[in-house]
Fold each of these.
Amino acid sequence: MKNQHEKRQKSICKLKEMMNYPGRFPILVIGDTGVGKTHWIFKLIKEANEFKKKQVIAYAGLIESTEEYWENLLKKSDKHFLIIEEVEKLTEKSQEILFEALSTTNGLYGFKQKEYEIRIIFTSTFPIRKIRDDRRYLMAKFFDRISQFVVEFPNFDETQTSIYEDFKATWLKFFEKVEKFKDAFPKSDNFRKWIERGAYRMHGNFRDLDKIAINWNLHQLDKNNDDEKILNKIKEDFKKSLHNPSQKIYEDNTFVFNEDTNYGDMLNDFKAKLKKWALALNNNEKRKASKMLGISYRTIERW
């Protein structure tokens, strides 16, 4: 964890504290696809102070909306961690059933009898505002029930300064135990600059780094390739298959319209996101960011 970006470290520490909290409250872990939510949940379960350090996983989109299904799932999860991924895909019927099962006065879950001792962790790729305010996904009472503890994992927009270290960790994950690839890590300065400057385009986050590492390794097996040739091929690969802006726009930049939303709110939201993007590209230096955007330093401070 020590090599992680400071923001990611804070999320990991917060999740660890919540997983060991004595009260039985559900935990909601949110963050873009590929930011490491499930990875860190599994890793911290192994370090947890309770249960058998095991987990039961359920994908919300595949869950049956019957009390019998939920009863069996809770029973199976007793004394374990229950992870429900992509909670926004739960049907309204499942939310009603689970809301009842999670109603507790003694920290135990269930229906007629509250008898199951479970740590329940929900995950979502939606930003908190979207699942909180957009009633197409979660009912208000269900969201309130599962959101006592919320942990948000940052994406590469927010952790750009550590992305090269993240790539090193990704490379080691695949190739550390393969002798002939130990010294094959990309050493090109141009590659490092491309990774750092392009972090905001990597909407798959660590999954994009996985693909880049694998593709780099495949290209370098061709003896006719040097680092610069490989980099050009990686860039082309990225344009064709790795760049996926539609998902990012849908998950993070959509506006939720409600009675409190107006033109001014949306404009301020846009300015804040534009500022965040520009700062990420300029190591959080406001003067450089303002110059890149063609606005004054005072303007970007106001944003």
Amino acid sequence: MMCRLIAIRIRRIMIVAVIRLPLLFLFSISQFLISPKTVVADWEKTYKPGDGSTKYCCSAGQTQDGGYALAGWAWCSPDVRRVYLIKTDQAGNLLWTKRYTGVANHDEGYSVAETQDGGYIIAGFTGEMGPSIWCNAWLIKTNSSGDTIWTKMYGSGGEGGYSVAQTTDGGYIVAGISLKYGPVNWDIYLIKTDSAGNSLWTKTYGGPNNDYGYSVAQTEDGGYIIAGYTKSYGAGGYDVYLIKTDKVGDILWTKTYGGTRDDYGYSVAQTEDGGYIIAGETKSYGTGTPLYSNVYLIKTDPVGNTLWTKTYGGASSEMGYSVAQTQDGGYITAGLTFSWGGSPDAYLIKTDPTGVAETSNVYKSGYCSLDIVPTIGTGIFNISFYIPSSVNLQSVSLIIYDAAGRLVETLVSVKNEPGYYNVTWSPKGFKAGVYFVKFTAGNFNLTKKLILIQ
């Protein structure tokens, strides 16, 4: 039987702040019915807290003092990851950083929010990567200086948290994933806690296949809205999945959006009219193909019925990771674009209330990129990487190692010039299990996880 390889994408995100905006946007996006414009940000920062580790930023927001809080994770050694929290002032100047250690060697932070007491709440997971693989959803509560007040773990060994928000009662709501059965079968996981992080209740949602929860918010009626994607329901492939619950997590209704190819939902917000706005990516509509995607924006009424959808994209791939309604009734969407420059660049789209673009800006990141795409029906995988001219290039390597950290194959080990490169890899003869592809260019490191299934 031909092997299948599933790539779990780890996003490396450039931090771009446009301080005139109400939020710090980390991502980039694509053409919004108009050609994108490359702009110079009011300021642009790269943060290297000093321990030499490679860091990934997954979440950020503006704080009450006008500065910004950023959360993510870092490679502290080839086999150890730790959660990081970074605090800056209004101009993006680094004020402090904190590192948080979980129960084993593998911790990742995916969402941060400022709390009512001026501290911070971080959601992610903590666990073990190696011969035995397990993880728990993880909450970290800090004071205003980032010092830990408490941490809590949730689940039985196969859970992760992707989104956290403080609720009106002072507690927290967390959305993520929970392992259902087998090595790669997930349900959406919802956790409600009190103000001390004690679990009040948990819920799982999903069908016979994979279902993921990436964004959660409390709604005006005291319930919750969850956005993610599902392979259990919908029109085919993955579809955007929206779940509305009451205040105790019981489902009131669900909706799916998308076509016969893969479509993903990453962010949801309730709008002034009581409906919802969802941002994600689509391969079913727009200029997307089986290999490329467009930003996908969906506007619904209060019960999830589609009012309109928009796609935005160029010749390559674009994703929308964050969306919010603006004071004029329009929307601001942030994500990534690969269509203008090859590397993942920050992209910001401002629309009117009907989703028509008013502005569309690319913020050049100068970051390396790594992408893995299967060639359907052949068992061969195209692995592409991009090296920008800004990288202090000494050597380039592309290696594959197993879950125990053993090197199993070297695909590239040379000194390359800046540019876009593509290699192929056939997993024929490899055993089923977890593998990692590690890309190194100068001081830059990026690793993607692969699960090989017979």
Amino acid sequence: MPPFLLVFLGGGLGSVCRWSIGLLLQPLHLRFPWATFVANGLACLLIGCLLGWQIAQGLPEQRRLLLSVGFCGGFSTFSSFTVETWQLWQQGHLFFAAANVLGTLTVCLACLLLGLKISS
């Protein structure tokens, strides 16, 4: 199967799963964004397992594209962000790992505010 199709299929499935969590929690009328919190946590758990599997015994490229890039990317981009930060940390690039965390949060919040301002 072509790589783009694996990413497409995994991403679609991940997005539907994330949306389903929101539907399941919607009747609870929660103040905290638990659906996103749960999706991010589960995606990080899954991508951690996949990364461990890849390190220990190798993960075939097709499975990596389908599950890590596609599913986890569709379920939560936070999982990819977390792996990239961990990789920087593991490589001894502590400054870049911290900059990635702080920079991502700062830029994303700033972009959100900019988007709100532009659309108002």
